[in-house]
Amino acid sequence: LEHYSSELTERLPHRARATYTPQVAKKHFELCVLDFLRWWAGFRGGEHFWAMPWAIDIMRQALDRLDGGRLLPPEAYKAAVDREYPLD
User: For the CA atoms of the chain, what is the radius of gyration?
Assistant: First the structure.
């Protein structure tokens, strides 16, 4: 991720470079991993679901930040995702 982020940052316009920090890149990557695992778990009823250990670790850490291990109603998950992964 560090290599990709570094390569991407070099190609961004100067103004965007200042705000696209490694922390922002990590948040984007985490959200991509979560979305991919969400899709994969539902693909063909989850019958072919498997993932690399690092992806499962990212998912568990992100879900812990979102819900602290408690099942929440959909509105609470939306608020938690907006808090952890803001669009601005």
Answer: 15
pLDDT tens for residues 27-49? Answer: 999 999 988 888 887 777 766 66
Highest mean pLDDT among 20-34, 50-64, 69-83 belongs to 69-83
Is residue 32 within 8 Å of residue 1, measured between CB atoms?
Answer: no
Which pLDDT score is estimated for 68?
Answer: 94
Question: What's the CA gap between 39 and 37, in Å, rounded?
Answer: 5
Helices 22-42, 2-11: inter-axial angle, 10-degree rounding: 120
**C-beta neighbour count of 58 within 10 angstroms:** 20
Q: Is the pTM of this model over 0.85?
A: no
Helices (H) and strands (E) in the chain, counts: 5, 0
| Residue 36 neighbours by CB under 8 Å, 6+ apart | 55
